[in-house]
Design brief:
Blueprint: E1 15-19, E2 22-26, E3 49-52, E4 55-58, E5 63-68, E6 74-75, E7 78-82, E8 86-93, E9 98-107, E10 121-122, E11 127-129
Antiparallel strand pairs: 1-2, 2-11, 3-4, 4-5, 5-6, 7-8, 8-9, 9-10
């Protein structure tokens, strides 16, 4: 992807960039972020829920409970935000045995806007003006 200044934008990380009031969204086209349910440390209390990366894991059942957003709130499944308006999707599979955080683009809304409102979603590699 190239901006109007002809500088290359790396696609390895999802990020929001500003160039003369133009914003563009690029992202990693890989499979997303994954961790193992066996991430509970041996010292973890059997009643603890722990956060590994942005995943919430129950150490009792050894299952994923959801994902944790940039504000520390847990999401069982669905869209959430990380970093500077980075739109992600929390995907819990196989009854909590597998989980993925998938990059979905950027969020062009405020903290009070509903992250599920697709009118605020900006797909990866899109250029838009604010």
């Amino acid at each position: 992807m190239q901006s109007q200044r002809n500088s290359q934008t790396p696609r390895s990380i999802l990020k929001l960039c500003r160039r003369n009031r133009e914003d563009y969204c690029s992202g990693n086209s890989g499979s997303g972020e994954e961790v193992s349910v066996n991430s509970c440390p041996g010292s973890a209390d059997d009643y603890d829920d722990i956060t590994v990366g942005n995943f919430l894991i129950c150490c009792i059942s050894k299952r994923f409970k959801g994902c944790v957003d940039e504000y520390g709130d847990s999401i069982k499944s669905g869209y959430f935000l990380l970093g500077k308006r980075l739109l992600k999707y929390c995907n819990i599979q196989n009854n909590g045995m597998r989980a993925r955080i998938e990059p979905k683009g950027c969020f062009n809304g405020s903290r009070s806007d509903d992250v599920d409102d697709v009118s605020f979603h900006v797909k990866k590699y899109t250029i838009w003006r604010q």
